[in-house]
Amino acid sequence: MKKNILTTLLVIISLGSLNAQERWSREKAQDWYNQHDWITGANFNPSTAINQLEMWQEETFDPETIDRELGYAAQIGFNTMRVYLHSLAYKADQEGFKSRMEEYLKIADSHDIKTMFVIFDDVWDANPKTGKQPEPKPGTHNSGWVQDPGYPESVEMADSKELEAYVKDILNTFGEDKRVLLWDLYNEPGNNDKGNESMPLLKNVFKWAREANPSQPLSVGLWKWNLKDLNTFQALNSDIITYHSYDEPEKHRRIIELLKTHGRPMICTEYMARTRNNTFNNTLPMLNEENIGAINWGLVSGKSNTIYAWNTPIESGEEPVEWFHDIFRKDGTPYRQDEVDLIKKLNAETP
Fold first, then answer.
1. 15: in domain
2. Can you give the pTM of this predicted structure?
3. CATH number of the domain to which 272 belongs
4. What positions does the domain Glycoside hydrolase family occupy (predicted)?
5. Nearest residue to 97 (alpha-carbon basis) of 61, 127, 128, 126
């Protein structure tokens, strides 16, 4: 496993000096990064939403909960949330969807929180459907999360005018919006054993986004080191290097050292899985020291059930001995006070 990670990263690094068309220069990327405080926050889905559709559909959009829970984030110094969109919610109600995005951004901005929007996603259920979403399966991690645009749609619609219009409309609408930090164009392409089947949509979403030409940087995070073709394309086309690591600190540090050779700012857009020895206490200080953005998975325990670990359900639905993700209970009580104290301390110390 260590050899595979090293080999894949070296392939990416060896090509890192090539210039992808219209990609930001290293100097522009670094200048952008230097204009921001240390980027720190969480992947955010309100506790009342089981997935992206329940978050964004008119019937279940919940600004009251969003406001309350982003308040929890602001209290510990978080300044960024990574938030997933969904093309089916847009397709069902284009103007309403953009209006709800605007409302979300107003709420986040009132808490001095910027947003990193995610466009497409290859993770979990391959059959998203609009309308009423399922209830959570007791004790099961992300039992209702859905892919976007789904499968086989992510292959069959890779060249579709429909998806192109969606991407360009969202980026044209919010592409000059200072409340939007960065566009994360595709979460974990190749997941669910898709592999290189995801390459056409990955290439197109970069193409469409470059044509829309937003003022914010574009990125797609590296996440699985044996997906060599996808990783290389992602790394060579991202303005800012983003990546996921749920690894223990030693392995995480090796990844950091290798990705540093791109000479670009870095943001870890997913981390923190307590039962995998990837915790706030052993990872957040490392990211702070390296001046790498830190976006953990999960803010408030809720319908996504991400306090439960991957593939290890607790059928009774009782609370696990150790939470996998998330920071707060619904009432704002921290799961662990020492973690919240550390987050507040590091955020306060960062100039």
1. no
2. 0.93
3. 3.20.20.80
4. 70-298
5. 61
